[in-house]
Design brief:
- It comes from Vagococcus humatus.
- Belongs to the transferase hexapeptide repeat family.
- By secondary structure, the chain is α/β, with parallel strands linked by helices.
- The protein has a single domain, classed as Hexapeptide repeat proteins (UDP N-Acetylglucosamine Acyltransferase, domain 1, 3 Solenoid).
- The chain contains 5 helices and 20 strands.
- The relative contact order is 0.10.
- The mean pLDDT is 95.
């Protein structure tokens, strides 16, 4: 049986984004996003309801500062106590899984969308494909970070601002740069060195 373009998208196969069903779903997502981004600043409960309609799943205490942008919404799954600052963009052409107690800085981009290397396949045939992104628990992602397709980031890791994450990053580390590389492991000394008066 021939797969629909949506079935191909969800299964990681090459698909054509010009498909009418996919175009309609992106329009529906944009309607939810327009509503979310236009709500009054104090309308937190209404924004939460819009996110529940838009996203694949959310746990308790999820907050995204508007404006927020995504492709489909239903491929995004957020854990509890999630916070994202302004201008989060998620190209969710396949699954994006984000764990509990994750903090995301402003202007962060998360991409699952990929395009063929051959120009004729990109432009004439219109093919795309996607690779999932996974982010563990208690991760902090600094502002202006770009997370590329297929990347996994382990729990309790910090990604420094301005990083371009092209490969998997393990848990419990500080990683920075373009391309993003592990700088060092997070240790108990990072806990004992902290003080309210001098919070390094």
């Amino acid at each position: 049986m021939t797969k629909t373009q949506k079935q191909r998208l969800l299964s990681g196969m090459a698909y054509q984004a010009s498909d009418p069903e996919l175009k309609a779903e992106r329009i529906q997502a944009k309607k939810h996003l327009y509503q979310f981004n236009q709500l009054e600043p104090e309308a937190n409960s209404q924004r939460e309801q819009v996110l529940k309609q838009l996203l694949g799943s959310t746990e308790e205490s999820v907050y995204i500062e508007p404006p927020f942008y995504c492709d489909y919404g239903y491929n995004i799954h957020l854990g509890k106590d999630f916070y994202a600052n302004y201008h989060l963009t998620i190209l969710d052409c396949c699954k994006v899984s984000i764990g509990n107690q994750v903090m995301i800085g402003p202007n962060v981009d998360i991409y699952t969308a990929c395009h063929p290397i051959d120009a004729s396949l990109r432009h004439e045939a219109g093919y795309e494909f996607a690779k999932p992104v996974s982010i563990g628990d208690q991760v902090w992602i600094g502002g202006r970070t770009v997370i590329n397709p297929g990347v996994k980031i382990g729990s309790q890791t910090i990604i420094g601002s301005g990083s371009v994450v092209t490969k998997d990053i393990p848990g419990g580390v500080i990683a920075v740069g373009n391309p993003c590389r592990v700088l060092r492991t997070i240790t108990e000394a990072d806990w004992t060195a902290f003080s309210e008066e001098n919070p390094h």
